[in-house]
Amino acid sequence: RCYHRRTMSITVAPFDQHQHLDTAAALLADRHRRDRERDARLPAAFVMPDACRPVIEQTFTSIGWRGVIAHDGGEPVGFMIMVPQLFPPTHFLASFFPPRSAAANYQQHATKDGMAYDVYREMYAVLAEHFVSGGYFDHLVSVAPSDAGGAEAWASLGFARNAVAAMRDVGPTDKPQAKVELHQASAEDADVIFRLNEELTLHHAKSPIFWPYLHETDESSHEMQRGLLGDPQANAHWVAYEGGKPVGMNTFMPPAFLSPLQVPPKTVYLYQGIVTSDARTGGVGTAILSRGAEWAREQGYEHMALHFAAPNLQGARFWLSSGFVPVEYGLRRRVDERIAWANK
Q1: How far apart are CA 186 and CA 190, in angstroms?
Q2: What distance lies between CA 178 and its chain's CA centroid?
Q3: Which residue, 186, 198, 199, is CA-closest to 239?
Q4: What is the pTM of this model?
Q5: 333-to-24, 128, 247 alpha-carbon distances in Å
Q6: pLDDT digits (tens, 9 = 90+) for 20-48
Q7: What DSSP assignment string belongs to 84-137?
């Protein structure tokens, strides 16, 4: 299928947060309506522009945001906002994101139906010029997996899949499970959690994922874990033991790292999922996930969501075979930084 059309009449102008907010909210609501037609689990509230307004307005609290609005023959056909991402090198998220990047998150862009290919290309061209001139060479965008026209647009611009957000219900699984001891960790088990988290980070550093393990983030990561362990009513670390040895873990917490447009009511977030390398493929991961799903049902949750690295071969196989269905693709493009001095 060919998605492109004539773009001679598409114009792109700077986004004004007062003048264009209502237009952007209407475009986002319309995009969300189309997304819900393909995935009914997405929250219904955001098919209304009034619900989308505050989500977009939150963007304006980010220092350095930049946006554009696109018109075709005077009619608004798209908007896009990108924000700088500057995580300190000691932050626990620094291992997962480029140190100096610009991102258009899931709720920060939309186009009119049938115009994604051309409109996204035109809008990104304007925003990319601004951010590259400021030294932002890593560009990120979050998109719906079912948006074929948008996917074609981003692929044509050099973006590739980097991360996946996926969701499933909290029902039981029929996959074979290992016979392991399962315990909910408490604050006294912090060292066990730290070691399993390090196992997960080392796994992410291997081929073909290659996410760096930055040891300077350890303290921030430990602080994050202590905070979760300190509130067992809202969070849960389910740890599997074989012969007294911890061999896997799932960490659950309130929804995080996802757009409100992606999170149905009664959703819990699976922050960490790891099985040690010597215990994989034997049903340990399924046993932990099954116990976590049981806990989630007891807490009144109906859905669980998570992220995994797109090039994580073992992780992708496990999560997708365990009932998780993608709700977002995180795409990344790295611009050749030599453009900063070349052609001058």
Answers
A1: 7
A2: 30
A3: 186
A4: 0.93
A5: 25, 11, 36
A6: 999 999 999 999 999 999 999 999 999 99
A7: EE---TTSTTTTTS-SSEEEE-TTSEEE-TT-HHHHHHHHHHHHHHHHHHTT--
